[in-house]
Amino acid sequence: MNAAKPKAAGDILVFLPGAHEIQRSQEALSSLADRFDLDVRPLHGSLSFDEQQRALSPCDRTRVILATNIAET
Fold first, then answer.
1. DSSP code string of 27-64
2. Which of 11, 12, 16, 36 is the most exposed place for a label (fewest CB within 10 A)?
3. Quick check: 65 and 16 in contact, CB under 8 A?
4. Dihedral through CA 14, CA 33, CA 53, CA 10, nearest 10?
5. Mind listing the pLDDT tens digit for each residue in 33-47?
């Protein structure tokens, strides 16, 4: 018997102080992302416009956005 994983009702936005902390958090979450089918994306000012857009574009999985305060703008 194969139980389906429940889908969360929404995405998760996590504010972190800087790009270094975002990178470390993304690495730390990688095994959970695989286990729970999460789309973990960084969002900070030193990313290209395309990378920032990927973090905000629609997704069929639960998304975890690891952001600096750029997400407020």
1. HHHHHHHHHHTEEEEEE-TTS-HHHHHHHHS--SSEEE
2. 12
3. no
4. -60
5. 999 999 999 999 899
Among 49, 48, 38, 50, CA closest to 14? 38
pTM: predicted TM-score of the whole model, two decimal places: 0.80
* Residue 65, beta-bridge partner list: 13, 41
Structure tokens at 13: 């936005």
The chain-wide mean pLDDT, for the chain, equals 87
The residue assigned the tokens 């690495």 is 27
From 16, 9, 6, select the one nearest 66 (Cα to Cα).
16
Q: Cα–Cα distance between 68 and 8 in angstroms, integer?
A: 23
CB 26 within 8 A of CB 51: no
